[in-house]
Amino acid sequence: MTLLHEDHLFPADPEIRGIARRLYRTIRKLPILSPHGHTEAAWFATDQPFPNPATLLIVPDHYIFRMLYSQGITLEELGIGKESLTQSEARAIWAIFAANYYLFRGTPTRIWLDFAFQELFGLKQTLTAKNAEKYYDAIAAKLAEPGFRPRALYKRFNIEVLSTTNSALDPLTDHQAIRNSGWKARILPTFRPDAVVDPDFDDFRKNVAQLGEMHGEDTGHWTGYLRALSKARQRFKQLGCTATDHGHPTANTADLDAAAAAKLYSEVLGGGAGADRRELFRAQMLTEMAAMSLEDGLVMQIHPGAWRNHNEQLFKKFGRNIGADIPTRTDYVRGLHPLLQKYGNERSLTIVLFMLDESTQGRELAPLAGHYPCLRLGPPWWFFDSPEGMMRFREYTTETAGFYNTAGFNDDTRAFLSIPARHDVARRVDCAFLARLVAEHRLGEDEAAEVAHALAYGLARQTYRL
Amino acid sequence: MTLLHEDHLFPADPEIRGIARRLYRTIRKLPILSPHGHTEAAWFATDQPFPNPATLLIVPDHYIFRMLYSQGITLEELGIGKESLTQSEARAIWAIFAANYYLFRGTPTRIWLDFAFQELFGLKQTLTAKNAEKYYDAIAAKLAEPGFRPRALYKRFNIEVLSTTNSALDPLTDHQAIRNSGWKARILPTFRPDAVVDPDFDDFRKNVAQLGEMHGEDTGHWTGYLRALSKARQRFKQLGCTATDHGHPTANTADLDAAAAAKLYSEVLGGGAGADRRELFRAQMLTEMAAMSLEDGLVMQIHPGAWRNHNEQLFKKFGRNIGADIPTRTDYVRGLHPLLQKYGNERSLTIVLFMLDESTQGRELAPLAGHYPCLRLGPPWWFFDSPEGMMRFREYTTETAGFYNTAGFNDDTRAFLSIPARHDVARRVDCAFLARLVAEHRLGEDEAAEVAHALAYGLARQTYRL
Amino acid sequence: MTLLHEDHLFPADPEIRGIARRLYRTIRKLPILSPHGHTEAAWFATDQPFPNPATLLIVPDHYIFRMLYSQGITLEELGIGKESLTQSEARAIWAIFAANYYLFRGTPTRIWLDFAFQELFGLKQTLTAKNAEKYYDAIAAKLAEPGFRPRALYKRFNIEVLSTTNSALDPLTDHQAIRNSGWKARILPTFRPDAVVDPDFDDFRKNVAQLGEMHGEDTGHWTGYLRALSKARQRFKQLGCTATDHGHPTANTADLDAAAAAKLYSEVLGGGAGADRRELFRAQMLTEMAAMSLEDGLVMQIHPGAWRNHNEQLFKKFGRNIGADIPTRTDYVRGLHPLLQKYGNERSLTIVLFMLDESTQGRELAPLAGHYPCLRLGPPWWFFDSPEGMMRFREYTTETAGFYNTAGFNDDTRAFLSIPARHDVARRVDCAFLARLVAEHRLGEDEAAEVAHALAYGLARQTYRL
């Protein structure tokens, strides 16, 4: 008995399944390129063992606790907001989780966890209230072994590149420490400037001042601010960074002239800008970032459309990232127009677009990426990084944008142990999609194998300039 | 030869079909819980035989006559708007229907009707112009039998609970009569307050005055109005009501303070409120109803997004519910925000959300229901209460919200004879979906059987507090 | 070895595939009705041989060059904007195309081209950089044969009706020449009035003046303008035209009274109308066109939702139709309301609605077409005239609108050689969809065969009054 069958996620039809298996066999063991994610460089810098199973698997994973919360379990019961857990607290949390594991039926969380339970911890029976203790003990025992430290897992997972996501203000000391240690691995920072380009971010003005100090620029005015940002990007590049990441509420961009932009910046910095002006500033900053990418070659990632912290009561108690970010309708065609008018035809620029609004896939994203040379489509993200979401992504984008205007897979996770599972799911689903095309005589199997390789490895490498 | 094959709606793949059959066998005969619908309590109070086939099956069913109308048949030809039909009129209508039955190919109406034709009336050949008379006679003969009276059918259909939908002003005499009759059945009213909370409803002011009279409250001011509503809910509860139903044009909610709400009520009642203010009033009333649900435990159902009576010419001639209600884009994330800020974290509140805009399923509804403890997703409704619609509902919501944040099935019908067919379709489609997960090794068959039971029975019972 | 398998596009499941094959066999050889497209009447008037392969297949096909452009190939390299190509230029373009043919994997362009390569030119191996020359020579040799002239191909393709699309100002001399030639074929013009009803069209005022001159009317005022339009439609009708075509940015319609419309026309003509007023004018003109259709019986086609020339840099250099038109969100329910209030119940009016926003299919289009007698749904268009797009169209519209409120297939192409391929794809996909319904016991195979015939032939004939 196993948790995951070897044909897991492959269509039942014997012909399609046979083709999917053959395609998958050719890419299954390719190294993992993880050019976008939220693991911590500190783990690899210090290489300390992970603490108990609850702290490792449950507390940091909003996919898990949002589902439990939706069914009436409080965040307090799950240890959210605590700095650390005692053994008995960790066991109590694990027990709640185990008793409610059935809630995850049909979700990707179930797949990621079962994959880790089986492949890493050798567990073979579905987690339930009954075997919760046995599970806890088995995982805890493994976590104490040297082979389960971060660096050992990095190697075991066959990772070739792992990018973290870092505030523009991050001193990057952990990245530096990894480099200094002589460890042979590519852990790369990604430049995420929200804290210094989004006027609604906590402590925006203080952040901008700090940015100036870090780079010897006067961020009290527009040109000094731009210079400081440019230097900050250089600082990231020196540690291997190849990309920036922008998580705006909308896909709006703007193209103000320098004087208007400087005026807007003064307003925003002075605190006198209304909601529309603050949105315009974010919009303008995307275009400014594109200009800098043209200069320094960093790949630009745009992740629009989340209403962050929709549940204000919880936000006040527990802060960000507690599972209450909700997707909203996004308009890429109008939003990106100013940026694309300015830089859309630049062939040395790469912009990766992510989506949380599936209705844009066929209508907006595939047509845009199937035309503008600078655009690539990021993989299905967040609520859609799942078998059905990934399959729909291919079904809705391929006919217009083809495969080669997509950016390969991102795991985008802070759950380190889920990385192999997430890439495995993506590879299986892509093989399943390709196998259907082959079985329906829409693509030769030899061509499908080339595409499968590109989707699993080549496109990520090319898109992110790795 | 039969109208419906025993494998009806199961996927063709032999492996998936085999699993679907096995799952279906375990739930096929579960009692029907029908917690939301539009049958008439009067049928069960009086237990009179249904009149002729046309009056029973065609005249009240806008699914049927909208399709015929779309193809050039007038509503007059179909007897819409007539109080009753002579035998020859009924036969003439039936003949038109039969000659055009091919128009329903591929629609759920065809399934519901074929199911009733076969299971209730023993008919075995597809309805056509040729056999129209034979059909009519066969159905008419059965309707005269005692076994086809409403109470007998209720029993034959294996219904455990049947909820009707009733205006807040409904005297509920039929429900009372059923209770008084000693008949062992659960026919429950549902509290639908549109007539007294929607300023655009016909005779709104008169309705509000009547509400006050019924409950000995002065609805001329805000607090009296709220008290009257609360008492009206109590009156429904005494007859077994467990839920309210709210069919607003949008999902907008509001959270005004008491003074602002009182002022708005005065404006609305005085007739001086513009369209925005009337919409704000409806929005505020959803939040007020949620507050009352917290008090009295009634489950709240929100059905937003229909543009009622889009065809104004027909509305003037024939009134409401003649097939010209059209879905519109709906924004749940912004619309529900005020209500959710106030009550979203209440674990003793249950709000069931329905949708007419499928693009919200993955983007908005599943993320909201997968987080807020008060939310449950209603089944695919109206234009989507169909095999493809039900399948997409599972495909788009399960990965984020799971199965256990959904509310089980509702038939939502005024076509009493279609109730067993509708539940059968839902059960089959859910089994087909689950069977694919099992065949793709995403769920064990034992777990799938538990889920199938919950979807067919347990979740409706739990959600609606039956 | 072949480029396209005989089971091409049929589902892999053996049962479904078997049914699909049988259904397809009954309709495969039906004549082609092409009631909407962009071929040139001049080809058939002059019957000159097509020039080289690049000029025939690549330069005019924005599906091809937008994909190449998106991957960094310039339009200049592809000969876009050149009046004609030398042999060596044509060969160089062909070489680029061949080397990048892999980009089209998974796209409909690949299918259309492989179909033509195989069926017309007898080629059997996938186009690559290696066999590019061989391909070029083979195609060029065929194009020199008499059997590859336009009229011969029309016959070979088994076309029964072929409609072109023509500006309201088109002198239609080529259509007249075809008639005069005595050639037995039905090449029909379609009335496309954008140039004279869209104030944002290049040279709008000049166009309107020219319209007046052509028809002896004073288009300087509203009633003269309407009379000129009406006469222009008559002129088209005399050459066999049965339909008009309207490609607006939105689905907005309006119903102004005559005085308000006349005033708006003056404003628009005077150049003083702002963006909102110009949009209102387009909206009003759709309703005026519907009024004229009621008079003269021309079928009205509405194609809303494209943001034309989104890439302004390219537009300035290369003009229209270079692959930079992007779909946008469309609101049919609100937009069409004024027109439908006025004419929606007219049974002698036919309006065919097309979409570029798939989220409207289930939510808006199927409910509207399943009610209003004047409405028919056009086939999936442009970015969705593809196997997945066509399949989703049936999945999203059939349950509400049925099959008989759809308009049959349009190829909508300027790529003459792709016409048989496009109709073949549509027929195969419809048979695949129907075969699934049959296999799932939702439709009898005999009924499915009737539907297949209607979708391939009968509905286009009926809808377009051919």
* Quaternary organisation of the protein chains: homotrimer
By CATH, the superfamily of the largest domain in chain A comes out as Metal-dependent hydrolases
Indicate the CATH class of the largest domain in chain A. Answer: Alpha Beta
What overall geometry of chain A do the principal axes of the alpha carbons give? globular
Radius of gyration of chain A: 22 Å
Number of helices of chain A: 21
- What is the spatial order of strands in the main beta sheet of chain A? 6-7-10-11
Low-confidence runs of at least 5 consecutive residues of chain A? none
Please indicate the percent range of residues of chain A in DSSP E strands (runs of 2 or more).
5-15%
In the CATH hierarchy, the architecture of the largest domain in chain A is Alpha-Beta Barrel
Largest protein-protein interface = A-B, 46 and 46 residues
Q: What is the CA-CA span between the terminal residues of chain A?
A: 40 Å
Q: If you consult CATH, what is the topology of the largest domain in chain A?
A: TIM Barrel
Describe the largest sheet of chain A.
4 strands, parallel
In round numbers, the mean pLDDT of chain A is 97
Share of helix among residues of chain A? 40-55%
Structure description:
By secondary structure, chain A is an alpha/beta fold. Chain A is 51% helix and 7% strand. Chain A has 2 domains: 98 residues, uronate isomerase, domain 2, chain A (Orthogonal Bundle), CATH 1.10.2020.10; 314 residues, TIM Barrel (Alpha-Beta Barrel). Chain A contains 21 helices and 11 strands. A 4-stranded parallel sheet of chain A has the order 6-7-10-11, covered by helices on one side. In chain A, strands 1-2-4 form a 3-stranded parallel sheet. The longest helix of chain A has 22 residues. The first copy, chain A, is globular, with a radius of gyration of 22 Å. At the A-B interface, helix 4, helix 15, strand 9 and helix 19 of A face helix 17, helix 18, helix 19, helix 20 and helix 21 of B.
